[in-house]
Amino acid sequence: YPFFYYFSLPKKYNFFSVPEKYIKPHYVNADELNDEYLEKIDSWHSNQVRVTNLEKTVVDSLRNEKLMTFVLEEMIDNYINREDKNIQRLIEYAKRFDVMEIIEKEVLKKL
């Protein structure tokens, strides 16, 4: 499939009977979904939804060993070119979730 919706859900969350094949749940510790990492945005249909902030999304993507290399490269390039990026927060999260080496190699050297 060319496009998937990835959802981060607390571990032990009962997410079953998903008829849509384009949905991929990702289970994390509940403390990874606290308000520090979340923000509210409007969906395509103008409904407010909670999503992880930009830096947490980048870090979570780097933690996903199954994500294809070209997807990671595009995500990093897009992040670097965004005006609303927060490098300090990215570094803090990278240290917290043990992906700092990747951030140094793939992000900081490109700035």
Outline:
The chain has 111 residues and is an alpha+beta fold. 35% of the residues lie in helices and 20% in strands. The model has no long low-confidence stretch (mean pLDDT 88).
Strand-helix topology:
Blueprint: E1 5-10, E2 23-28, E3 38-42, E4 48-52, H1 54-63, H2 69-80, H3 87-96, H4 100-106
Parallel strand pairs: 1-2
Antiparallel strand pairs: 3-4
Can you put this structure into words, describing what you see?
With 111 residues, the protein is α+β, with helices and mostly antiparallel strands. The chain is 35% helix and 20% strand. It has helices at 54-63, 69-80, 87-96, 100-106; strands at residues 5-10, 23-28, 38-42, 48-52. The chain has a two-stranded parallel ribbon. It has a two-stranded antiparallel sheet with strand order 3-4. Helix 1 (54-63) packs antiparallel against helix 2 (69-80), helix 1 packs parallel to helix 3 and helix 3 runs antiparallel to helix 4 (100-106). The longest helix is centred in the C-terminal third of the chain and has 12 residues, at 69-80. The protein is globular and about 40 Å long. The mean pLDDT is 88.
Report how far apart the termini are: 33 Å
Structural class: alpha+beta
Number of strands: 4
Strand arrangement in the largest pleated sheet: 1-2
Mean pLDDT: 88
Describe the sheet with the most strands: 2 strands, parallel
Uncertain spans? none
Q: Give the proportion of residues in helices.
A: 25-40%
Which percent band covers the strand fraction? Answer: 15-25%
Q: What's the helix-strand series?
A: EEEEHHHH
The total count of helices amounts to 4
> How many whole angstroms does the radius of gyration measure?
15 Å
Sum up the overall morphology in one term.
globular
